[in-house]
Specification:
single chain; alpha/beta; TIM Barrel; three-stranded antiparallel beta sheet; 17 strands; 19% strand
Length: 370
């Protein structure tokens, strides 16, 4: 693929540090991608996202196809211009959103469902997903896969793997832009042999990157760890590895420890809007009355624009109580920076050969606030 490569720089156990090269810049890994579902990371500007340290963001194929439509985005210069983001962008396939809808009809051809905006009948196929993503113009695009629900019996999970492998072949045939890297997605629910089968067949296609999907649909931390641990070793060492939809800080550190490189999740932004913020000593909720007169920043050890500007917990408490929009902005800036710092510190620990010790010390401190 034009302009894409991954260079592995260091290991610490199974944890990896590397650099993912894209046409819109380099991404040092491990890396967390803020989620901009509608072409925007909620409550913050692209410049504020950059200042948190993020180098790559995620946007959603399904939602952008519904509104404003991929044709308009393409006409206005593509997703980078439309969003005002000049760094790398990843778009998901729309599969997770479609499979989350009620009353959908899943067939080998694709998925039929009702447009959630106007109720009209729609169909999303591998070809249509790639067509939309080609028009949007993100650096990394995802194959259309069947996201198996949890829990699922083995027969249902096996059908999901079969369709995922069938659909990746159709995605490859439909993909028309060499300046976009098409990643495959490993499915198989909680069945190790299905995960490994799916991974083997995807790896045989020599794709520019690989993702593990279906680990953020309700399994919980322990199952997520089991799935990732059995699947990650199946993926090529010279390609980026993406764990989709994960997660909490403890999830990210576990996954880095199994050798995953890229992550995304709505947790830091969604939690921020409900006054839940991350600190070195765990998560706190700023609407609690204990913070009404608290003069400290959210986290005294944090270097984000919210904490270093002198905004106190008491002020954030007041903003949330008053339902001021600024509350979401300041909390989101902090949470995104917390996640970026976690990834930077993880990378530094890998480069120094001490990731396991870093993870243990971080989680020990993080748990003290509970």
């Amino acid at each position: 693929m034009n302009g894409f490569s991954y260079s592995l720089e260091a290991r610490s156990g199974l944890a990896r540090a590397g650099t993912f090269h894209t046409p819109h810049g380099e991404v040092e890994t491990p890396s967390f991608m803020p989620v901009g579902t509608q072409g925007a990371v909620r409550a913050v500007t692209p410049e504020q996202v950059r200042r948190t340290g993020a180098r790559i963001v995620l946007a959603n194929t399904y939602h952008l196809a519904l509104r404003p439509g991929e044709g308009l985005v393409a006409k206005l210069g593509g997703l980078h211009t439309f969003m005002g983001w000049d760094g790398p962008i990843l778009t998901d396939s729309g599969g997770f959103q479609v499979f989350s809808l009620p009353n959908k009809e899943i067939r080998d051809r694709g998925v039929r469902f009702k447009n959630e905006l106007d109720g009209s009948e729609m169909e999303l196929t591998p070809e249509r997903s790639i067509e939309i993503q080609n028009a949007l113009g993100a650096d990394v695009i995802m194959a259309f896969d069947e996201c198996t629900p949890y829990p699922a019996d083995e027969s249902l999970a096996r059908i999901g793997v079969r369709r995922t492998l069938l659909w990746i072949e159709r995605c490859l045939r439909a993909h028309a832009r060499p300046d976009q890297a098409l990643f495959g997605i490993v499915q198989g629910s909680t069945y190790p042999e299905l995960r490994q089968q799916c991974a083997r067949e995807l790896v045989a296609l020599d794709l520019p990157g690989y993702a593990i999907g279906g680990v953020s649909v309700g399994e919980g931390h322990e199952l997520m760890c089991q799935i990732t641990e059995c699947t990650a070793p199946m993926l090529p060492e010279d390609r980026p590895r993406y764990l989709m939809g994960v997660g909490l800080p403890e999830d990210l550190l576990a996954a880095v420890g199994y050798g995953m490189d890229l992550f995304d999740c709505v947790i830091p932004t969604r939690f921020a809007r409900s006054a839940s913020v991350f600190t070195a000593r765990g998560r706190i909720r700023l609407t609690h009355r204990r913070y009404r007169r608290d003069a400290y920043p959210i986290d005294p050890s944090c270097d984000c624009d919210t904490c270093t500007a002198g905004f106190s917990r008491a002020y954030l408490h007041h903003l949330f109580q008053a339902n001021e929009v600024l509350s979401a902005v300041l909390a989101t800036v902090h949470n995104l920076r917390f996640y970026q710092r976690l990834m930077v510190r993880s990378r530094e620990a890998v480069l120094a050969g001490g990731f396991a010790e870093f993870r243990r010390e971080f989680l020990e401190e993080y748990g003290r606030g509970r």
